[in-house]
Amino acid sequence: MNLFKKLTVLSLEQATVLPYLTYRLAMDGCRVIRLEHPVFGDPNRLVGDPFLPGEERMNSYFMAINAGKEAITLNLGEAKGRDLLLELIRRLQVDIFATNQLPKNYTKLGIDYETLRAVKNDIIWLGITGFGPTSNEAAYDPILQARGGLMELTGEAGGTPQVTGIPLPDMGTSEHAYGQLMKALFVRATTGQGSRLDLSMFESTTSWLTVPITMTASFGKKISRRGNTHEFFAPVSVYPTSDGYVYLAVGNDKQFGAFSSLPQFAHLAKEEYKKNAGRIADVKRLNDEISKVTKTISTDELLGMMRQIGVAASKIQTIPEVVQDPLVADKLLHAVDAKTGFKLTLAPAPVATEFLKENKQTLSFPPRFGEHNEKVLCGELGISAEEFAALKTSGII
């Protein structure tokens, strides 16, 4: 039995950090209802190319992490909107309420933990902020990368700081929040008690700095960006081949012994290179010597050589090549638009969930703006057609 199907998540969400978390929950089978302002909505709906000519708020960027959800609109700046929110919590028996609003808006919008707990005392409340529940400082992923040290560690040695290729503070905080929600669900299952969870994107980001912080604060070592090389292991880098690039990672002295036993690299079987410290001390010369050899070998030939000796290596794959990778291709997710038949392809789940297996790797299509207003408000809260029309006219929905 998939117990996640019994859970209802109501999420006042926008951007990436919280929508990715609720997307994870949708992949588990939770009912996820995303809540948006009836005028402004989620700004990410307007990012990227339009899905259909003339159809607003369904742009390509929004679609990547919003499949499997429902969408309603509600103006929480109005008393009637706040009343409807409490009715939703009560009537839908919401298990998890989540928001990435600034803390100064919690009470104003009626979404603070105490207000919602008064309606449903075992609710699990989650607030994701840039710098914690006492800060109202604005934060986007690159800002967290800058302040959290990730940009200092990303880029070429001596070059300018760079952002990472994916929004790690967004995704990382989502993953940490997912873990905290699982703990809170366990607490509720065993004690009947709800929880308030506050996740700081900054704290999430700096928690990844395990080696850099210890090496800096305990051992006084300067840690900064080094391009494709590794601070503590060599040879580890990207090397050119005759038809592309390969990343090689020699993880220990035994592996380097096997590497330098190959005829092509036998000239590197030097006494000073037997230990990792010696290779690190001469890493530029070492990498130059390896590159002279690898650029004369095809990618497939070099990978075959590394597999034979047990050294980790990979071709630098493009995103189209990743999509076609046999370990990825059959795990991609899909969502089909009922209106047009358009098939949306989505990144694979981090784990194969029971819900996805049951549904053959498919999710419902990302919801249009306010798509489920009538279904939820009329069908589940019992609002009449006349009252529904009045809520639209007054700007509540």
UniProtKB/TrEMBL annotation:
Keywords: Transferase. SUPFAM superfamilies: CoA-transferase family III (CaiB/BaiF). It holds the Pfam family CoA_transf_3. Gene3D superfamilies: Crotonobetainyl-coa:carnitine coa-transferase, domain 1, formyl-coa transferase, domain 3. One of its GO terms (molecular function) is CoA-transferase activity. This is CoA transferase. Signal peptide: none annotated.
